[in-house]
Design a protein that fits this description.
InterPro entries: CmpB_TMEM229 (IPR010540). The chain has about 325 residues and is mainly alpha-helical. It has two domains: about 140 residues, no CATH class; about 160 residues. The protein has ten helices and two strands; from the N terminus they run H-H-H-E-E-H-H-H-H-H-H-H. A hairpin with a 3-residue loop joins strand 1 and strand 2.
Length: about 325
C-alpha cells in the first residue's frame, strides 16, 4: 500500500461504508426473508464498516510483510474501535445497535472474543486481497473526477447522518419520557396505597397503616423500573376502582379528607396514560425506519419501552401493507 491523499482516504471510507451496507443488508434480508435496509443511516452507508476498514489499513501499514503482526494489530484496533463506538452510541442514544451479551467471553456486551479473532482475519483479507483492486480503482480515477465525486458523497452523507442522528436523539427522548411516565405511575400507585390505608384503617390506625404502606411503596418504587408498565397500569386502575367504591360507600370524615387528592391522582393517571399512548405511536417516519432497520437493537435501561416501540412500528408497517 502506498501513502494516500486526504481525498483518497475519504473515498476509501465511503466505498467501504457502501460495501458494508451491501453485505449487511443482504445478510439480514436473507435471514429475515424480507428486504431490510440495515444500519444507523437511511442511505446505503454503514459508517462502522468504513471506519473499520480504514482502521485496518492504518494499523496494518507498519506490518505489511508480517502476517502475524497484521493479524494482532487488526484484532486490537478493530476491537478498540468497536468498543468505543458501542459505548459512545449507548451513552448518546440509550440503546445498543449490536449486543454480544449472549456470546461467550464478551465484555459489557459491546465486544466479544469471537468477533475480536474474526477482526484479525478480516484485516489480513482486507490488506492482502480486498483492498488491492479497490486501491487500483481509486488510482485510476482522474483527480478532478475523484474530487467532485468525493465532495458530492460528503454532502450527501453529512446530510443523511445529521437526519439519522436527530432521529436517534428523538428516539432516545421518547424512551426517556416513556420511562418517566412509568415512574410517575409508580408514584401514583404509591400514593393511592397510602390513601387506601388511611380510608380502610381509619385515623386511629392510620400511623401504623401509613408506615406499612410507605415501606411497601418504597419497595415498589425501587423495583419500579423492573416492573412491566402494564402491571403498574393494572395496579393503579384496580386501586382507583377500589377507592372509588369506598368513597361512595363510606362517607366519613376520613373519606372526605382524601376525596380531593383522589380526584387529582385520577386526573394525573389519565394524563400520564394519554402521554404514554401518544409516545408509543412514534409518528415520525425516520424514527420508525431506524427501529425497523436495526431489529437487533437493545436497551439495558429502557428494554420494555424499546420493545413496545418495536412492536408498534411493526404493527404500523403491517397495517400499511394491508391498506395498500
Amino acid at each position: 500500500m502506498e501513502s494516500y491523499s486526504v481525498l483518497q482516504w475519504m473515498f476509501f471510507f465511503y466505498f467501504y461504508c457502501f460495501a458494508g451496507w451491501c453485505i449487511e443488508s443482504a445478510y439480514v434480508s436473507v435471514k429475515e426473508r424480507k428486504l431490510t435496509n440495515r444500519g444507523f443511516m437511511r442511505g446505503p452507508f454503514l459508517p462502522l464498516y468504513g471506519s473499520g476498514a480504514v482502521m485496518m489499513l492504518v494499523v496494518s501499514m507498519p506490518f505489511r510483510e508480517n502476517l502475524i503482526m497484521t493479524y494482532v494489530a487488526g484484532c486490537i484496533g478493530a476491537t478498540v474501535l468497536e468498543y468505543v463506538t458501542g459505548v459512545t452510541m449507548e451513552a448518546l442514544f440509550k440503546v445498543r445497535y449490536w449486543d454480544y451479551s449472549n456470546q461467550k467471553f464478551n465484555f459489557q456486551g459491546h465486544v466479544c472474543l469471537g468477533t475480536t479473532l474474526a477482526w484479525g482475519l478480516l484485516t489480513i483479507l482486507m490488506t492482502k486481497v480486498v483492498h488491492i483492486p479497490v486501491e487500483q480503482l481509486v488510482f485510476s480515477i482522474p483527480d478532478r473526477a475523484l474530487k467532485v465525486s468525493t465532495y458530492i458523497l460528503t454532502i450527501y452523507i453529512v446530510a443523511d447522518f445529521s437526519l439519522s442522528f436527530k432521529a436517534a436523539i428523538d428516539l432516545r427522548n421518547i424512551l426517556v419520557k416513556m420511562e418517566q411516565v412509568k415512574e410517575e405511575m409508580v408514584h401514583i400507585q404509591k400514593r393511592l396505597n397510602d390513601i387506601f390505608a388511611q380510608v380502610n384503617h381509619g385515623m386511629e390506625n392510620y400511623r401504623t397503616a401509613f408506615s406499612e404502606s410507605v415501606s411497601a411503596a418504597r419497595e415498589e418504587l425501587t423495583e419500579g423500573m423492573a416492573v412491566r408498565f402494564e402491571d403498574v397500569k393494572s395496579g393503579v386502575e384496580a386501586r382507583l376502582e377500589t377507592l372509588k367504591n369506598m368513597l361512595l360507600t363510606k362517607p366519613t370524615e376520613y373519606v372526605e379528607s382524601v376525596k380531593e387528592e383522589f380526584l387529582e391522582l385520577k386526573t394525573r393517571y389519565a394524563v400520564n396514560l394519554a402521554d404514554r399512548n401518544r409516545l408509543g405511536r412514534i409518528k415520525d417516519f425516520f424514527q420508525r425506519d431506524m427501529i425497523r432497520s436495526n431489529p437487533g437493537m437493545t436497551s439495558v435501561e429502557f428494554s420494555e419501552s424499546l420493545e413496545e416501540l418495536k412492536k408498534k412500528a411493526a404493527e404500523k408497517k403491517e397495517k400499511k401493507k394491508e391498506e395498500d
